[in-house]
Amino acid sequence: MRSIEVERAGRPVVPEDQLEKYSSAVTLSDMEIFVFPELLYALVLANLMSPRVWSWRDDPWFANRAQLTPYRRVLRLRQFIMDRFEFNLDLDTWGLTTQARELARFRRYMDEATIARSNALFGYEGDRYYFDLDIRRHFGLDKYSSDTIPYWKTETVEAMEAFRHRPGYSRGAGECVSLSTLYVAGLFLLCGVPLEDIFLMSTPLHSQNFVLLGDGLLTNNRRVVTRAMWFNGTELTRKAQRALRHEQVTIVAHCTGWIHCVYPEATIDPNEYRRFEAALRSFLHSEITMELLLNFLREAPERQTCFQIRHVRHGRTVYLPAETAYRYEASSSARISDRTRDSLLAEIEDDEFFPEPLPDRVRLDDVEAAFRGEAVDPTDSEAVRRLIEGIGCRRFQAQRAIEELIRFAHVEPRLPDRSGEPKRWVGGPALRLRPDMSREELCAAVASLRATHPVADLALYAYRDLSVTDWRPFVKAAIERSPVSITGAQGLEDDAVIERVRAMPDESIYDGARCAQPDEVWNFGRGDGFEKALCVANILAARHPEARFELRVEPDLVRLSAGGRETLWPSRKGLHGGIRF
Fold first, then answer.
1. Closest CA to 33 of 201, 183, 165
2. Distance CA 287, CA 374 (A)
3. How far apart are CA 175 and CA 363, in angstroms?
4. Which residue, 39, 51, 6, 187, is CA-closest to 512?
5. What is the pTM of this model?
6. Neighbour count for residue 563 (Cβ, 10 Å)
7. 422: helix, coil or strand?
């Protein structure tokens, strides 16, 4: 690794033993967040400070948000995010690294076996469900079966919006962590949801939020899942359930701190964590009713053949296989499981019905009688068994069907405090930010906490504000973890690299003194002179490992000296200092 020297007077200096963490706040890869859980909320704060998110308040889509209920505001935010961003999991976006290199980086913080058990890029496959799904192929990880692996980086809102400049994209994009942290900012600034009521959850393969609003809300990539939706048995809901049904929750992050499945200490307020845990368990639990049973059948089509529907059509009693009703339901707004059932049956063609009862099938109206208007607790296995015995279908009475129904109605989340030894609740300062703050007040509040709150300090590095941070973490991240620009410039001579970057629009994706990394410059094809000069230096440094590079940074100009040659780059970042590596 190259040694980095920075000349800047009167600016904070990150201790040497903290450089890895602080440089990780710039790149924010999946593994970096797993090793340094403080980074998850640092990105939340960076998005909360971003003028891009604040500008959303002026969008006509949110003009009447003050008159809407909190839930209607959330729906507005959801549609806004769905229209503006794509879910992106192109693992080549941020380039390649190696398992050996990453494990060496983090060996002092976490052992290799722990990382391999908990990270998809290091051998994690999930439980039996994920083996059946072939999760590595599903996420495109199978092509990285050797020591070579992709970076799995998280984007700031600025980088997410900049995807529209990439070929093949017409709007912004981001992966699950990017979208979950963006949702927190939107929920707080546009929906007025207090940060105290928002909990971020990470698993080895996913990141989502649980929001204490009404019966609870779960954000899942671009979508929002309500408790009623959780139990509706649809394909979209099944996808949203994968992480909580099948994975260990590795991190829960909150404005009061975090808890991690590996680390013995937890900084989150224990009372807030218990409030979250109780609300999440309630969200994931439902008593078994007739409606829930019908929703279960929607998810378990192989069980539908046990049932038929008796219906009066044109004055005659007719019978319909349950699977036929569910097939029609797939293209209808009506549902077999609620009061719109008659509307659904009216949409079905006459020749789908039978004039006589189908043999060996139970009528759904008989099943409704078995409930007698009562609900059954799914954790009471004997009560569930008695209920199922009232359904005269031997196939449905099978032990496997009973277990499937119980699992449908009740999920036991694998939370970090249940993953090993009891946690030591060490506590720490909370981030007390209010939705009614102005952006200036919010930014000032975060800045005022830097000396006492480690997440607030890291947030300024995730925010990329080089006017108030030590430049070494930013430069370390730039020259050690920006492989896309290096690979993209292959085949170009050194002079051609300079001209290629110089020809890009002089337009930074970040405002003010905030700066892009070399791979953001290359991916989005634009940058300020300071960003362009660092991008060129990163490419040439990889080609000429013995050469020394120097950037003399002035408010309106950057001088890049490389191999005895100096190039000039106009800048509008207003920065002043020097960088050598």
1. 201
2. 10
3. 45
4. 51
5. 0.94
6. 13
7. coil
